[in-house]
Write a structure and sequence with these properties.
Helices cover about 40% and strands about 20% of the residues. By secondary structure, the chain is an alpha+beta fold. The protein has 4 domains: about 70 residues, Winged helix-like DNA-binding domain superfamily/Winged helix DNA-binding domain (Arc Repressor Mutant, subunit A, Orthogonal Bundle), CATH 1.10.10.10; about 50 residues, no CATH class; about 80 residues, SH3 type barrels (Roll); about 80 residues, Alpha-Beta Plaits. The strands form 3 sheets. Strands 6-5-4-3-7 form a 5-stranded antiparallel beta sheet, with helices on one face. The mean pLDDT is about 85.
C-alpha cells in the first residue's frame, strides 16, 4: 500500500534524524534532505513533528533552523515499562531456541540480562532459571555467525528500497557472479536464511541464500516493489523456500507412522483423512517439487505418493536408483571378500 510505505519511510526518517541529533550530529537541512533523498521542506516538517512530541529542536547560534540540534539541556529518559512473567518467559525461550551459530547469538546472550532489569525480582529470576532448565541442539545447521553486517545492510536496503550490488556464489558455479538485486523480504525457513527479491533484468522473483552472498554494497538508486509480490501468498503457497505454482499433493502414510503425521502441521492447507487399515492420508496444496520430494523421501517406505503423477514417478525413480547403488556396492563387497 503506497500510504503504508510512505508512513514507514517517515517513521524511519524521524527516528534516524533524532538519533543523529542525539549523537551530536551537525548536519544541515540540505544535507539531511540529500541523505534521505527527500525535499528540504519534508525535513523541516520532520523537525516540527519531533518538536510536537516533546523533543526540543533548536537552531544554531544565530537561531537558524537550517542547522538543527537538540536543546542543550535535553536528556533522553525512558519511562519504566515492566515486563510480565509471560513476556520474560517468551524472551528467554526465544534465546534458548536460537541455535548457537545464528548471526546475533552473542548479542542475545548479553541482551537477556538487561531485559531482566525491566521485570520484578521474582520474574527476573525466571530468565536465569531457563538457562539451566532448558537445553537443546541442532544438527545440519549452517554457520551464520559472521552474517550480522550483511543482514543489517540487507535490512537497510529493504526498508529504504535501495538497490544492492551483490557478489553471489551459486553451488553449481565455479566462480561468484556480480549482479544488481532489489531485496524485498528476509526469510527464515527450515533453519536457513534467505532473501526474496528481483534481479532487474529478469521477470521472476529470485530467492537467494544469504550465506552465499560474498559481498554486498548499497547502490545510490532506489527501486519500486513489484505490485504482484504478496508475502502472505508466498507463505501460503510454498512448501519451503521455493515459490512455484502450487499443486495438490496427496501422500499416504503407514499405520506405524500415522501418529507422527497427525501431531504436526506440515502445511497450512493440509487435510488429514483416516483410512480403514490405520493408515492416514495427507492432502495439501503447495509448490516446490524438489523440497516436497526430499521431504517425502525422508519417510522411506512409510510414505506413498498418490498425487500428482509426476511426483510419484520421481519418487519411484529415485528409489530404483538407490536400490541399484546398494546392489552395486554389495556386489563389489562380495567380490572383494571372495578374492581374500
Amino acid at each position: 500500500m503506497p500510504g503504508e510505505r510512505r508512513r514507514d519511510r517517515q517513521a524511519v526518517r524521524l527516528l534516524s534524524i533524532f538519533l543523529l541529533l542525539l549523537q551530536g550530529g551537525r548536519l544541515t537541512v540540505h544535507e539531511l534532505a540529500a541523505r534521505f533523498k527527500t525535499r528540504r521542506e519534508t525535513i523541516y516538517r520532520d523537525l516540527r513533528t519531533l518538536g510536537d512530541v516533546g523533543i526540543p529542536i533548536e537552531g544554531d547560534e544565530s537561531g537558524r533552523l537550517s542547522r538543527p540540534r537538540l536543546g542543550a539541556d535535553y536528556r533522553l529518559r525512558f519511562a519504566p515499562v515492566p515486563l510480565t512473567r509471560q513476556e520474560i518467559a517468551a524472551l528467554a525461550w526465544a534465546v534458548k531456541e536460537s541455535h548457537s551459530r545464528q548471526p546475533f547469538q552473542a548479542a542475545l546472550s548479553t541482551a537477556l540480562p538487561k531485559l531482566q532489569t525491566f521485570a520484578s525480582a521474582r520474574d527476573g529470576r525466571l530468565a536465569v532459571a531457563f538457562d539451566g532448565a532448558v537445553v537443546g541442539w541442532d544438527r545440519g545447521v549452517k554457520n551464520f555467525e559472521t552474517l550480522g553486517p550483511s543482514l543489517l545492510r540487507l535490512l537497510e536496503a529493504i526498508v529504504n528500497r535501495r538497490r544492492c550490488k551483490l557478489e553471489y556464489a551459486s553451488p553449481g558455479r565455479a566462480r561468484p557472479r556480480r549482479f544488481p538485486y532489489d531485496p524485498y523480504r528476509l526469510l527464515a525457513v527450515h533453519g536457513g536464511l534467505y532473501c526474496v527479491g528481483k534481479v532487474p533484468a529478469y521477470p521472476n522473483f529470485v530467492t537467494l541464500a544469504v550465506d552465499r552472498i560474498r559481498s554486498l554494497e548499497l547502490a545510490e538508486e532506489s527501486f519500486t516493489v513489484d505490485p504482484t509480490f504478496d508475502p502472505k501468498r508466498y507463505e501460503a503457497e510454498a512448501f519451503g523456500v521455493t515459490w512455484e505454482k502450487p499443486m495438490t499433493i496427496v501422500v499416504r502414510f503407514s499405520a506405524a507412522q500415522a501418529p507422527y503425521v497427525r501431531e504436526r502441521q506440515w502445511h497450512p492447507t493440509q487435510r488429514l483423512r483416516e483410512l480403514a487399515d490405520g493408515r492416514v492420508e495427507l492432502t495439501f496444496r503447495a509448490g516446490g517439487m524438489f523440497e516436497i520430494m526430499r521431504w517425502v523421501l525422508s519417510w522411506g517406505d512409510a510414505a506413498e505418493v498418490v498425487r500428482p503423477p509426476a511426483l510419484r514417478q520421481e519418487i519411484a525413480s529415485t528409489f530404483r536408483s538407490a536400490v541399484a547403488v546398494y546392489r552395486r556396492h554389495a556386489a563389489s563387497a562380495g567380490d572383494r571378500g571372495a578374492a581374500r
